[in-house]
Design brief:
Layout (H helix, E strand, L loop, with lengths): L8 E5 L12 E5 L3 E6 L3 E6 L8 E5 L5 E3 L4 E4 L3 E9 L2 E10 L5 E3 L19 E2 L3 E5 L3 E3 L2 E2 L6 E4 L5 E3 L4 E4 L3 E11 L2 E12 L2 E3 H8 L2 E5 L2 E5 L13 E4 L18 E3 L4 E4 H6 L5
Parallel strand pairs: 3-9, 10-19, 12-19
Antiparallel strand pairs: 1-2, 1-4, 4-7, 5-8, 6-7, 8-9, 11-14, 13-17, 15-18, 16-17, 18-19, 20-25, 21-22, 22-23, 24-25
Length: 286
Amino acid sequence: MKKTIIATIIFVYCLLFSIPCQAVTKQLTFKTTVSYKIIKGEKFKLYVKGYKTSKKVTWKSSNKKIATVSKKGVVVGKKPGTCKIIAKVGKKKYTAKVTVFSDKENIVYNKDVSPEKKKDRYDSIDYTEINAEKKTLYTGQTFSLKITGTKNSIQWKSSNNNVAAVSSSGEVTAISTGTATITASFEIGSYIYEHTCEITVTPEWMSAKDIESYFKLTFSYFKNSIHISGASSENSISGTVKSTNINDIPDVMETDIIYGSDVRYKSDGTNILFNIADLDKLGLLG
């Protein structure tokens, strides 16, 4: 981020439902002119410190074809290029440099960064990885996403905070059932890198059929008992997996009663539902 001492500006990256690339809600204070990179169609709100809601501020773009700015300081990327956003308060002038990229320009994804390509275009760029590209969580569960291969500042965002929220450190919290994509973006040189993880959030109570589908567990049925074999671990040298037994299952189960201790279970009137959090505590989810 290039800095030239001129002014004090605060950026607020707003979560807007209408934008294709939602930014993590964040507020930064600068004592210099700011250079900001955005994707075509992306929006962000700009305001001068001390004049956040003041009508005394007038806004102007040096090139409306590249980026426009509203009377309230909302900047919109229109087409690739660089322009200046100028705010005036009386005789004082505040400037922010905005560079707009197309959807693909200067966006380099994990699948495009390989050791083979490092010999040419990526000769000076570290190989970076995310610790999970897909993850299934149950409601209430948390999971830490991490990026290796760079010490640069990472911005995290979720495509749907109602399904899965992510903190500034990459801690994902499953909120409700559904799917969401967690994106980590960071800059190396003149390129913006992005890694993504697809999050699937399931209910905390699920049938054996659904658990087998989502978590790859195996259920074996016996008279009044069920044997559950856990998901195989990629890190297991022996190839062994954890398992548990649920014994003394009633012949007739009432729908308003929760049974079991290590693994709680209940009936929905048709299927036996098992508590996913209990299976996770026993290490059965892998």
